[in-house]
Design brief:
Layout (H helix, E strand, L loop, with lengths): L7 E5 L3 H10 L3 E8 L2 E6 L10 E6 L2 E6 L16 H4 L3 E9 L5 E5 L7 E6 L1 H14 L7 H7 L2 E6 L10 H4 L11 E5 L3 E6 L2 H10 L2 E2 L2 H17 L13 H8 L6 H6 L7 H5 L6 E7 L5 E8 L9 E2 L2 E2 L4 H20 L9 H4 L7 H9 L5
C-alpha cells in the first residue's frame, strides 16, 4: 500500500467529509461506524460529516466495551461484531418462488435482491481477507451464487489500517493484517493530521483523482508503514507454531489429534450457542426452508444462516453425525483451520478475534489450538 508514493495522496482530516460527499454524489449509500446497542456496527451515514470520532472498543475473551480514544481519531477501534458478510451473504433471503397459475400449473421464478450501491467506510484488512474467501465460495466457477454476486458487485470498499488492534486480534499471525494490501477500492492510514490515501481499483483511482489531493510525502508514507509494523507487534495472540505458506503443518497436526482430551475440556464450557459462527466473517453455513402462502397458491424457498453448532445441522437420514457439543466444536475448529486448506488453499481464519470477544464463556480459538498443537499427542 505504501510503496509507490506517486500513487498515494494525503487527505487532511478536515477533508474526510469531502471523500464521503463525493461517494454520495456518485450514488453510493455510504455505511460507516455507528454505535448501536453498545457496539460499533456499520450503518448508513445521514450526511458526509456523519462519521464519529473518539471511539475505541475494549475487547477480551467474552468481553466487549466501548471506550474513548484520547487522541480523538476516526478509526482507533479494531472491529465490531459485524464484518462485510451480512451485506453480501444475507442472514435470511428468498432464493426462488413458485406460483400456481389459473390452469393449476406450477411456475418457478428466481428471486433476486434489490442491491443498492454501497460504499463501506472503515473496512479492516482482516475483513478484506474474509471477503476474498467468501468470493471463492460464492463466486466459484460453475456455482456462482446470483444473490451474493448481485450484492458483491455493488460494493465500494474504503479500507483503513488498524493502528490500535484489540487484545483479541491476531491477524498478523494469519498474514491478513493489520495493514490492507489488496481487495480495496481506497485504503486510508490515519495519522495525526490526516490520511495517507491509496487507490486499489479503477473505481478508487477515479475517486482519488477527483479529490485532487496533494501527494503523500515520503515521511507520511513511512509513518503509515511504521504504524502498521507497530500494530502488528502489539498483537499478543497468535495461531501456534511456525506455519508453512500453505498451512499444511497446522492442518495435518489438527487432523492427527481428533481424539485429543482437549476436545472434552472445551466441550464442557461451550454452550453451542453459535455466536462464534454468527460473528465470523468467513462462515457460510446455511439452511433452506420453504415458506408457503396461506392460500396454497404460492411458496418461497428461503435461505438463512445456520451454524455447525446447531443440533439439526448434523442430521443425516435418521441419525446425527455430530450428536454432542464435543463433535460440533471439533467440526468447527478443524474445518476452519484444517479443512479449508483443501477447499481454498488457506485457513478459514483471518485473525479478527470476533469469536473470542463474542463468546459468552470466553473460549479462545488461539488458546484451544495451541493446547491441541503444542501440547503434543495425548
Amino acid at each position: 500500500m505504501f510503496t509507490q508514493p506517486d500513487r498515494t495522496g494525503f487527505l487532511p482530516l478536515a477533508q474526510l467529509s469531502v471523500l464521503v460527499g463525493r461517494l454520495m454524489a456518485l450514488g453510493y449509500q455510504c455505511l460507516g461506524p455507528t454505535v448501536e446497542n453498545g457496539a460499533i456496527v456499520m450503518r448508513e451515514l445521514s450526511s458526509p460529516d456523519g462519521l464519529p470520532r473518539g471511539l475505541q472498543a475494549e475487547q477480551a475473551a467474552g468481553h466487549y466495551r466501548l471506550t474513548q480514544d484520547p487522541h480523538h481519531r476516526y478509526f482507533a477501534w479494531a472491529n465490531g461484531p459485524q464484518a462485510i458478510k451480512p451485506l453480501t451473504f444475507a442472514p435470511q433471503e428468498s432464493l426462488w418462488e413458485v406460483r400456481r397459475n389459473a390452469a393449476g400449473t406450477l411456475q418457478f421464478e428466481a428471486v433476486l435482491p434489490d442491491a443498492p450501491a454501497l460504499a463501506i467506510i472503515g473496512v479492516r484488512a482482516c475483513d478484506l481477507a474474509a471477503l476474498a474467501l467468501q468470493d471463492a465460495h460464492f463466486l466459484r466457477e460453475g456455482r456462482r451464487d446470483a444473490q451474493y454476486a448481485r450484492r458483491r458487485e455493488q460494493l465500494f470498499l474504503v479500507a483503513v489500517q488498524c493502528a490500535e488492534p484489540a487484545a483479541t486480534c491476531f491477524c498478523a499471525s494469519t498474514g491478513d493484517g493489520p495493514t490492507p494490501t489488496a481487495g480495496y477500492d481506497l485504503a486510508l492510514s490515519e495519522l495525526a493530521d490526516g490520511f495517507v490515501a491509496a487507490a486499489g481499483s479503477d473505481k478508487g483511482r477515479a475517486v482519488l483523482a477527483a479529490l485532487n489531493l496533494a501527494p503523500a510525502t515520503s515521511q507520511q508514507i513511512e509513518a503509515a508503514r511504521q504504524q502498521g509494523v507497530a500494530a502488528a507487534a502489539a498483537q499478543t495472540r497468535r495461531l501456534p507454531g511456525r506455519l508453512s505458506p500453505s498451512g499444511d503443518n497446522l492442518r495435518d497436526a489438527l487432523m492427527s489429534r481428533l481424539e485429543h482430551p482437549r476436545w472434552d475440556a472445551v466441550a464442557a464450557r461451550c454452550l453451542a450457542c453459535g455466536n462464534c459462527t454468527a460473528v465470523c466473517p468467513t462462515c457460510f453455513c446455511h439452511a433452506e426452508a420453504d415458506a408457503p402462502a396461506l392460500d396454497g397458491q404460492s411458496s418461497r424457498h428461503e435461505r438463512m444462516w445456520d451454524s455447525c453448532f446447531g443440533e439439526a445441522h448434523g442430521h443425516l437420514h435418521g441419525f446425527n453425525v455430530r450428536p454432542d457439543i464435543r463433535s460440533r466444536y471439533r467440526q468447527w475448529l478443524t474445518h476452519k483451520l484444517a479443512g479449508w486448506h483443501n477447499q481454498f488453499g488457506r485457513s478459514g481464519c483471518v485473525g479478527c478475534g470476533r469469536c473470542i470477544a463474542w463468546c459468552p464463556v470466553g473460549i479462545d480459538l488461539t488458546e484451544e489450538t495451541t493446547a491441541l498443537i503444542e501440547g503434543g499427542q495425548p
